[in-house]
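ugh ok fine here u go
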Amino acid sequence: MAMVRMWMEIESQKYDQAASKLVWELAVKPMYGIPTDQAAVEETEGKLGSILDFYEKTLSQNKYLAGECFTLADLHHLPTIHYLMNTPSKKLFESRPHVTAWIADITARPAWSKVLAMQPNLSSK
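structure:
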């Protein structure tokens, strides 16, 4: 449980700070015709890249963030991953093989497919 809590804290204090900013710049702003701030994107991609380097190291030793079982720590990443994989920032994830395998695993879960199916605006992205 301590590992799950630690990763949930990392997600909320590190990963989500950068990922949500990229979602705002690359997914939300364009939906409303607001110009993307490319300087903010580049700066934030650098921050997220550093965070994902840590994820890559962890995922080279574990199947999931907190060990060998899927937990809330993994689940909390799904919304931002969903949006970012449909933007140029997906390169940050795809350049890290263990992160890529982890994303393939967690996004293929039947429960996530059901969530997407219930949300027409999510499944069409």
